[in-house]
What we know:
Two copies of one chain form a homodimer. Chain A is α/β, with parallel strands linked by helices. The first copy, chain A, has twelve helices and twelve strands. Chain A binds a DNA duplex (30 and 30 nucleotides) through α2 and α4.
Amino acid sequence: MEIPEASASTNRAPTLHDIAAHVGVSVRTVSRVVNDRPGPAEATRQRVLEAIEHMEYRPNLLARGLVTRQSFTLGLVATYLNDPFFAELARGIQAAGDRLGYLVYLTSSEGEPGRQQDILRSLVDRGSDGVIIFPVRGAEQQLISVAERSVPVVSIDHRIEHPRIGSVEWDTEHGAHLAVEHLRATGRHRIGMLSSRMAESVDEPRETGFRKAISDLGYDVDRAVVWTDETVEGGALGVAELLRRYPDLDGVFAYTDIMAIGAMRALEDTGRAVPDEVSVIGVDDVELSALVRPALTTVRIDREQMGTRAVEMLMRMRADPAAVFQHEVIDVSLVVRDSG
Amino acid sequence: MEIPEASASTNRAPTLHDIAAHVGVSVRTVSRVVNDRPGPAEATRQRVLEAIEHMEYRPNLLARGLVTRQSFTLGLVATYLNDPFFAELARGIQAAGDRLGYLVYLTSSEGEPGRQQDILRSLVDRGSDGVIIFPVRGAEQQLISVAERSVPVVSIDHRIEHPRIGSVEWDTEHGAHLAVEHLRATGRHRIGMLSSRMAESVDEPRETGFRKAISDLGYDVDRAVVWTDETVEGGALGVAELLRRYPDLDGVFAYTDIMAIGAMRALEDTGRAVPDEVSVIGVDDVELSALVRPALTTVRIDREQMGTRAVEMLMRMRADPAAVFQHEVIDVSLVVRDSG
DNA sequence: CAATTCCTTGCCATCGTTGGCAGGGAAACA
DNA sequence: TGTTTCCCTGCCAACGATGGCAAGGAATTG
Lengths: 340, 340
C-alpha cells in the first residue's frame, strides 16, 4: 500500500521493440507486419497483429519519417486565414489530403514576404512532403529555394515559371470578361475596378481581362483601376476613390467578393442604391455572398476542385520529381444574383 | 566536360555532420552552437556560425523531435472549417503558437466521433505537443486516451472532468441571459431557441441560461428549444419548426450567428420582417454578422483571446504535467445591432 | 540421402539529432 | 616544475523506425 502503483496510464507509448519482445520475434518482423510487407508467415503475422491491437501500438511517424523521408504532412500557406475564401479552400485540400493519409499544416502569410519566408522554412524543417501556396507577389525566389530542396511546390492562382513549381489557376481573365460583359449588357458604361494591392506591380489576369473588356469605352483604362487591400475596409476605401475619380460611376468589378461587399456597404453609406444606381460584381463566390443583401453577383471559382487538383498535382510531382511544367487552369462561371 | 556537374541545387539538405566536416570540428560541437548552449569557445562558435550561414543549414526537426520528444507542433481540431467562427479562432491560435515557434495542424471533425478519433490518433502519431479541440459531444473518452498518453489537451467551450484535460470556456450561460433579457426588454414574449444538435443529449450552458431566463414566461420551456445543425440551412429549418409550434413567435435566440442568419433568411422568406415582427439574436459575433442586413445582434465571444489563452494553458500543462484541473472562463458581452 | 531452393526470420547499419561522460590542453596555483 | 582546475571538445549511445543482406530451417529436387 505504501508504494504507489506505477501509473500505467501515463506510460510511454509502446514501440516496435515492445511488441517484438512481447511476441518473441524480432523488431524487423514486427515492422514487416505493420507495413504489410511480404515475409512473415501467416501464424506469426496473426500473433503480431494481436499484440499490436492489445498493446495499442501506433507507429512513431517522426522516426519513420526520418528513415523514409516522408512525413505524410502537407503545408498550406494561405494569405489571410479569416478570409472565408481560404477556409473553403483549406477544406478542399484537407479533404483531398485526408484520403491519402496526409495531415495539413495551415498557415497564413498575411501577405508579408518575411512571414512567408519563416513559414516556408518552418514547413521544410518539419519535412513536409509538399507545399501548396498562395504566393506573396514579388517573393517568388523563396518558392524556388523550397522547390530546389526537393520539396514539391504548387502555386495557386499565380503561375511561376520554374520547372519544379506547378500551378493551379482559375481562368480569371475570362472571369473578368464575363463580369464586364454582363455589366455592359445591363447598360453600365462607367465601370471601375477594385484590384488587389498585391497585383499592383505584376500582370494580373483579372486586371488584364478587365482592361481589355473596357478598352473600347473611350476613357482612360488605367485610371479606372484602384489598388487596395483585400478586405472589407479595403473595398470601402477603394470605391470611395473610384467615386472621386468618376462621380457618375455605375459599375464596379472587385478583385474578391469580400472587397465587393465592402464596396456595397460604402455605396449604401453615400446614399447610392445597389444595383439600381451602381452595380457591383465580385470574384470567388464565397458562401457569404449568397447571404448578404443584395445577394452578390460574382464570378464563381471552384475551391473544392482546386484543393483536390492541387493535392493530386503534388502527389504526381512527388512520384516523378523530374516532371516539369505542370500548369492547370480551372474554368470559372458567372453567378448572377441581385447586386449587378 | 563529359561528367555532368552534380546538380548542387537539388542536393540533400546539409546536416550537422556536413557542417562539422566543413569546419573541422565534431558534430557535437556544431549541435551546441545551433542550440546556443555553453561550451564552444567564441572563435569556434564564430566559424561554425559562418558555415551554417554559408551552407544554409537548417536543423531537421523530425530527428530533433525524436530525441527531445518535442515536435513544436500543435493540433487544432475544429468542428467545421468553413464556419468563419473557427477560421477566426484558428487565427488566434496560430498567432499565439507562432510567437513560441509552434506550427499548427488544422483539422476538422465535422462533428463525427469516428473522424475525431482518426484525427486525434494522427496528431499523436506525429508527436504533437498538444491538442486544442472543440470536442464532439459524447466522445470524451477519446480525449482522455490522448491525455493519458501524456499529450496535453485543452477543450474549448466544453468542460471535461478529468485531471489532465484543461478547458477554456466562454460564459455563454450569462450570454444567453443577456440575450433573452434584451429581447424581453424590447417587448418580446414568445421566444424560441435554436440549439445545436450536438447539445441535444448534454447540459449546455446556452440552453440552461435560456431556460432559466424564460422560465417565468408561462409556457412550456422544453418545447421552446429546437435542436438542429449548426449551419445556415439548420437555422432555416429550425426556425420553420419553431413557427409551427408558435405561430406568434416574436423572438429567436440562436446557438450561433450562422444559425441566426439562416433563421433571418427563412423568416424573410415567410414574409416576416426582422426585427419588426421577429427579433433574432445569435452568439459568436463573427465578422459576417456585421455585414448582413439587418446587421445581427449577437453575444460576442472573443476568439483571439480564446486562442491565446488555450495555447498558454497548453504550455503550462507541458511545463508541469502534474498540474490539475485548469478551467478558465472568458466573459461575453451583448452587441446590439439591428436584428433584435 | 545429399544438394538445391525457397520461405521466414534476424542482425546490423542508418536516418539526423541530442545527452552523458570522458579526455585533452591550457591556465593557474603551489 | 609539478599538480590541480577549468575550459573545450569529442566519442558513444540512444530516440524509433526501415533497408540490405545473410542465415536458419523446411521443402523440394535429383
